Inverse folding.
């Protein structure tokens, strides 16, 4: 492996560096999403039961003990339980604006790696072909026959960097799309939970107002 990287030239080190960055981001995001994953429906049932029983403090404490963006957002809405509907919705939207960037953290890095590594491989291909043509020109000007072995280094660099770039880019792109789908699922859960909370607080307000 080391000899392949050395023969591939300096661009191989850049591609290797990009692969390490991508792997680090993927592991960090998977761990973050694993910690943030909860049974949303079960969590909502517990929160709503507390709210129905007018146990607002208990609902807030449940949010504090539960990881993930859904719990963080709902806590902000519950703190505004006695405010008008529009104010609660605005609070939930503001909380979501802070949570979404946390979910999307470093995903832009993955996208960049997935796009730049094939280009680095292509650059290596171009560099290798330039070396080949330089050798051909030198041999031709000296009236020496071109030996295939003389071109092997340039062709080797051209092929190995392209293969390395694609080897890094393909799984990185797959990982990026998967993580984006996970983010979208979190966002969908956040939106559904926010709507249900607003409706729940509104029904509670009407219930108490009618008493």
């Amino acid at each position: 492996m080391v000899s392949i990287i050395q023969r591939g030239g300096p661009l191989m080190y850049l591609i290797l560096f990009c692969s390490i960055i991508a792997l680090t981001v993927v592991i960090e995001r998977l761990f973050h999403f694993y910690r943030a994953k909860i049974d949303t429906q079960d969590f909502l049932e517990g929160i709503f039961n507390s709210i129905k029983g007018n146990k607002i403090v208990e609902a807030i404490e449940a949010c504090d003990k539960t990881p993930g963006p859904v719990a963080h957002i709902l806590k902000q809405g519950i703190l505004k339980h006695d405010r008008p509907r529009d104010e609660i919705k605005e609070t939930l939207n503001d909380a979501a604006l802070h949570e979404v960037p946390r979910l999307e953290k470093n995903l832009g890095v993955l996208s960049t790696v997935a796009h730049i590594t094939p280009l680095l491989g292509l650059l290596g291909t171009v560099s290798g072909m330039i070396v080949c043509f330089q050798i051909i020109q030198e041999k031709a000007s000296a009236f020496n026959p071109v030996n295939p072995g003389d071109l092997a280094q340039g062709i080797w660099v051209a092929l190995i960097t392209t293969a390395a770039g694609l080897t890094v880019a393909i799984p990185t792109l797959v990982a990026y799309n998967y993580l984006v789908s996970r983010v979208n699922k979190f966002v969908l859960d956040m939106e559904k939970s926010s709507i249900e909370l607003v409706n729940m607080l509104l029904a509670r307000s009407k219930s108490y107002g009618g008493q």
In short: The helical segments are 2-8, 10-36, 40-52, 56-65, 69-79, 85-103, 107-141, 148-209.
